[in-house]
Amino acid sequence: MAFEEQLDLSSTVHEIRTNSLKQFEALGFPTKKDEAWKYTSLAKLLKNDYSIFPKKETTTELKDVKKYFLYDIDTYKVVFIDGIYSPFLSDTTHDGIDVCLLSAALTKDKYKGTIETYFNTIAKKDDSLTALNTAFTKEGAYIYIPKSVVAEKPIQILHFSTSEQGPMLLQPRNLIVAEENAQVQIFERHQSLVPHQVLTNAVTEIFAAENAIVDYYKVQNDLDEASLIDNTYVAQKGKSHVSVHTFSFGGQLIRNNLNFYQKGEYIDSTMKGITIIGDRQHVDHYTLVDHAQPNCESHQDYKGIYADKSVGVFNGKIYVNQIAQKTNAFQKNNNILLDNTATINTKPQLEIFADDVKCSHGCTIGQLDEDALFYLRSRGIPKREAKGLLTYAFANNVLESVKIPALKLRINKLIADKLGVSIGHDL
Amino acid sequence: MAYTEEELKKELETKEYEYGFYTDIDSDTFPIGLNEDIVRAISKRKEEPEWMTDWRLDAYRSWIEMKEPDWHNVKYKKPDFQAISYYSAPSKKDKYESLDEVDPELLDTFKKLGISLDEQKVLAGVAVDIVVDSVSVATTFRDTLAKKGIIFCSISEAIKEHPDLVRKYIGSVIPVKDNFYAALNSAVFSDGSFCYIPKGVRCPMELSTYFRINQAGTGQFERTLVIADESSYVSYLEGCTAPSRDENQLHAAVVELVAMDEAEIKYSTVQNWYPGNKEGKGGVFNFVTKRGICHNSAKISWTQVETGSAVTWKYPSCILKGDNSIGEFYSIAVTNNFQQADTGTKMIHLGKNTRSTIISKGISAGRSQNSYRGLVQVHPNATNARNFSQCDSLLMGDQCGAHTFPYIEVKNNSAQIEHEATTSKIGEDQIFYCNQRGIDTEKAIALIVNGFSKEVLNKLPMEFAVEAQKLLEISLEGSVG
To answer: What is the reported pTM?
Structure first.
């Protein structure tokens, strides 16, 4: 393995890497013949000849990238440029909590125990893209919140790409561990700084121990040339609360694989998303909630607004194990098609083996309410703005559960801009 | 003594199939196995014209190239298609002029099933085309229908007497290469029903067919073709019960419906094939392809009550090709013991202002698995398409499973699609409420299950609603009254 030559061969993950590569070679890239990839084709993306070794030099200045940060609040930052850590832009810590690099965690003895306990333990072994990421695991964020510690600042994980050397494949790998009673808020973003073909195949593993609270926010508003395959795996223990919010506003192709594994009782899992796309963009949300223990809850709420030849996919699976009695699992997917060229494919699935459960899914595809539109227009609001306002209202209620006020405002503004609505106050 | 849910479960498990008897009639059975010669022989035996033989051979040749599908959510031992006899017919092939001439033993069979031909003729006004092991032995009310210009006969008769109609429409909705079982059926179908309603005619009675699998080790391959010409209406009932058998029997039927402009077809099914015993041994494999095509302003309504079969694989579908056409699907699927059902529908919206409704109720008990699998597809030209889907599942006991796999694909922004699904068990508070009012637990459960399925039961024609209730009783004996 040429790739491994650049790395420390004594690494504990050497074996995991080798096995994953074998696994990937056996599986290959998914095709439309795979049920999970029925509506999303990677064929076009895979035509590019991607380079996986980024150039070494970066000339990115803070002023170029500042707008992509949550700059108005104090945060920890882990910043990568073309997959390489940028100490100049980052703000890491080892004070009470660990916010640092996975590459450091993989090699230093101090972290050996945590890596062995958690690394690659919930990421799906039989998923080819996850296996590919694991095989080339090198860099990413490592966040460790010890028992009963509350991270006092949100943590930002930012991945920038600047390559001008042709198509590039980035494979960041994040590991997040929140021990008992720990709390943390994380914000993640992938952003290209120049229009170029970049494919990001990210894997994030999140572990929440008893009573831990983890809130994870993903903002996907990349340039039209960039594509993202995001694989997130969440393992929760008793009474923990984990929420993942995904805001997809841009990119050529985005695929979000979001997997929740409940490994205790009284767990709460929340998955929310807003997708607003147009211009031949493609966003695919693929969620799985595995209810393995009794008395747990899961909530899913995905809103989609699609225009101009864009394609939206939602595939949500709720699996309720036979012993998972008293499960409450709810799933909602509402979509609006703004014009006749957009497509939505949705496939909510319930697989239930326990009888004392409350599970439901609802899914709608429709238009804006004509009466509401008329009401606004009769009060002198032009049609375009009226439509924008209603669409904005449609998407907006997902924002209510965002716990970082600064982020809420930012996303509010992004949605308003996207829909051409003036929300009346400057952000 | 108070009747507890535990006792109910026990009773459900021990409930034996009531209609498990076997009529001893001399059957004329072909050697087992399938090859081109068998296909030719079936065709020859049925005195079919050459185009039909070629059509069957074409289907057979596509079939041998095809693989059995495995995407469904059911597990079973795949049947050995070379170990099945593909043709069996009662040995007396003469057509009877009156009921007196019919083999008394056969009449006895129907009596056990509660289908008395004369009684139905007189009282219910139902024309019954009875199929025992694939050959139509009695067709009633032919004359009454003939006066209106309605053709209602077995498909083999239709091939001989109305070859133009059959040739034009057979395979037009479900092509021979459509899927594995449809291809198999096209190659070897032994008999079935054919119905043609001329322009502007409203069929005065419910047309009905009863299917039974009788001979051991024979597969049943029914072929039904219903054509409703412009502005006509027909309500078609199909019901089936099969005797108890230890080895798995195969049933691969094909039903094609053609609704011309402004026509309406209502197709109701009550299916109660032998579900296997409580250890999951035996039972019928039911792999059915049903599809209808709606032209302008036409309507097709599928109603089904599925209580039998060890394995069910069935998706009655509507192709809404014409503008303003309507498709409906109402289904109750009950599974108990080791039964598995993977059933649902496809609504393909092609025309403008097309509407579809899907109501699916699944009840699982014992160790059974019940899946709903549906597709709602709105094509780019289907302006103002409207769909409402509702799939509810009721779980009884913690060993069974309920699954939903709805696929929704929309390519038109004026479409309005709603889909909802719920899964729950019978609420303890509901039972408590009933108990409090002096209704015992058994009756309470019956009441709740009845209410749960009411939306679908109401869609069945009167004659069938009663039978459907009976079948629910057999499948969930002790819980449904």
So the answer is: 0.81
